[in-house]
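User:
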Amino acid sequence: MPELADLEARLRALGRVVVAFSGGADSAFLAWVAHRTLGPDACTVATAVSPSLAGDERDDCAALASEWGLRWQEVFTTELDDLAYVANDRDRCARCKTALMDVLGPVATAHGATVVLGVNLDDLGDHRPGQQAAAERGATFPLVDAGFTKQDVRAWSQRLGLRTWDKPAAACLASRLPYGTPVTVAVLSRVERAEAAVRRLGFAALRVRHYGDTGRIEVPVDGLSALLEQREAVVAAVRAAGYQYVTVDLEGLRSGNLNASSSPASADASGGS
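Assistant: Predicted structure:
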């Protein structure tokens, strides 16, 4: 396991940072360490708000910032104004990160800081065009530089007493749409409502993949039995969000599983997690 001192040294070398803060385990750990290492004057934590961010996730970012005393601000991105993003091809994530850097770049410039993202070593193996787009616009990845994997982030977060140590991954809502399916506010809202409803039934880690009138639920394999035990409530919850049909992926929840095919027409091709 890498030493926390390695990450702290990398952050000190940067001097002043703006942390892209989604509230997930990685960005939360990075924000907490940066705040403790550099102090509030040199560490700004910013959450990008748009229809692709679930409202519950935005609220948790605000709560974490309050709990940890972070200098936090919201920034508002407009990726849905970008027709290339809306078209939802395999470079959608690059368009999203470009929109993110468009708003974080000026914040960083105003503070004489560097934008840092919570990318870890495990993220480098999947199809993540957004990472390249962010790096090309000046963002850096301190967790990668310091040799942190996802497991390392969770282990150190637990050791430090951060409540985000076991928080399930929560990629942007657009990642629930197969490539080629246009990204709209209405569809993102439907996905958000469906996932929130199923989460209220006790499923913390889940995805509802959007296939037109069908919502396909993914939960970890060890949660499939519990999901089926609540079949009627789950079906009612997803239908109430606007889906006519409800299915379950028997392979279970796995990050990036819809990146398997590069064909936009494939029913199993989508971005993110």
